[in-house]
């Protein structure tokens, strides 16, 4: 788990995929349909083959789910935001707090969606994605950490949104969750 980034990332996402497969097998053994909904960061749930992650040798849960025919069809849904607040830490192992999310950079899908004039929307991307969303563009990924002082280097990657997700929700402004006691 503490090896090079790609190795560490791939181990975590492979473990998530194995856990889903085991959970689905268990549900089916109980006579249930075995349908599962997973809530995860875009960087885990969007198909890595449609992102710069694949150039670094990384794969993720979304890619593995699409490739795993035994699981059945996967439907990948992404979420984007232009600005707002997020609960994240300033450093690894640090406490999460409410952090202000800077406005999305020009050239990013978040900036494009903000310019649509719709504050909140759902967009299906299959079977016919909207024009331009199959072209490489920047996308922000905020996870455990949020580092606004190095935002472009730390939180943006190149993606093809229409290949990364089957559908997308966009919210111009989000608000950090408050943890329960």
Structure report:
The structure is a single chain. The protein has about 180 residues and is of the alpha+beta class. The protein folds into 2 domains: about 5-70, no CATH class; about 75-175, EreA-like (biosynthetic domain) (EreA/ChaN-like  fold, 3-Layer(aba) Sandwich). Helices cover about 30% and strands about 20% of the residues. It contains 6 helices and 6 strands; from the N terminus they run H-H-H-E-E-H-E-E-H-E-H-E. It has helices at about 5-30, 40-45, 60-65, 110-115, 150-155, 160-165, and strands spanning about 75-90, 95-100, 120-125, 135-140, 155-160, 165-175. The longest helix has 25 residues, at about 5-30.
What is the residue-averaged pLDDT?
A: 93
Order of helix and strand elements from N to C terminus: HHHEEHEEHEHE
Which structural class matches the secondary elements? alpha+beta
Name the poorly predicted regions. Answer: none
Annotation field: number of helices:
6
